[in-house]
C-alpha cells in the first residue's frame, strides 16, 4: 500500500488546478492554486497556498488543511480541510471541504459573507516512482 504524498499536481471536479511543490519534514507545505471558477466570473490568477499536514512520515492517511490567498483578482480567502486516501489500485484522492470568505462592506452584511462546499482532488499526472 502506497502512502499519500501531497506534493504534485492535482485537479478537482471543477477543473481547478493545485500544485503542491514543497512539503517540509514537519508537515508544512506550500504551492499554487489556479481556480477555474470565481465569484465575479472573471479571470483568475495562480494564487499562493499554505498548509499543514498531520502525521507527516507516519503510517495512516493524513489529514491536512490549507488556505489560499487569492492573488490580485479577489480579496476573498478560502480555507480547506481534508484527508488523503489511496484505493486498492494506488489511486490517490483528496477529499476536502472549504469555507470561502468574501469581503463585505459592513457588519450588517456579515451573514452572507461565507460559503461552504466540498471538493475532491485527484492527480493530474500520475507520479512515477
Ligand atoms: C474569488 O472568486 O473571489 C476567489 C476564488 C474562489 C474559488 C473557489 S474556492 C472553493 C471552490 N473550489 C475551487 O476550486 N474554486 C472555488
Account of the protein in words:
It is a single chain. By secondary structure, the protein is mostly beta strands. Helix content is 0%, strand content 49%. The protein contains no helices and eight strands. The protein has strands spanning 8-12, 17-23, 28-34, 47-53, 63-69, 77-86, 92-101, 114-123. The chain has an eight-stranded antiparallel beta barrel with strand order 1-2-3-4-5-6-7-8. A hairpin with a 5-residue loop joins strand 6 and strand 7 (92-101). The site of biotin (BTN) has 16 residues, from strand 7 and strand 8.
Describe the structure in brief.
With 129 residues, this protein is an all-beta fold. The chain has strands at residues 8-12, 17-23, 28-34, 47-53, 63-69, 77-86, 92-101, 114-123. Biotin (BTN) binds at residues 12, 14, 16, 35, 37-40, 70, 74, 76, 78, 98, 100, 117, 119.
Amino acid at each position: 500500500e502506497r502512502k499519500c504524498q501531497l506534493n504534485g499536481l492535482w485537479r478537482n471536479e471543477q477543473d481547478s488546478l493545485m500544485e503542491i511543490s514543497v512539503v517540509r519534514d514537519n508537515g508544512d507545505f506550500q504551492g499554487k492554486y489556479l481556480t477555474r471558477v470565481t465569484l465575479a466570473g472573471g479571470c483568475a490568477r495562480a494564487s499562493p497556498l499554505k498548509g499543514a499536514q498531520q502525521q507527516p512520515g507516519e503510517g495512516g492517511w493524513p489529514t491536512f488543511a490549507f488556505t489560499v490567498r487569492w492573488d490580485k483578482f479577489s480579496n476573498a480567502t478560502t480555507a480547506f480541510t481534508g484527508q488523503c486516501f489511496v484505493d486498492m489500485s494506488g489511486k490517490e484522492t483528496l477529499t476536502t471541504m472549504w469555507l470561502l470568505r468574501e469581503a463585505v462592506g459592513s457588519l450588517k452584511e456579515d451573514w452572507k459573507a461565507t460559503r461552504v462546499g466540498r471538493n475532491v482532488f485527484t492527480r493530474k499526472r500520475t507520479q512515477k516512482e
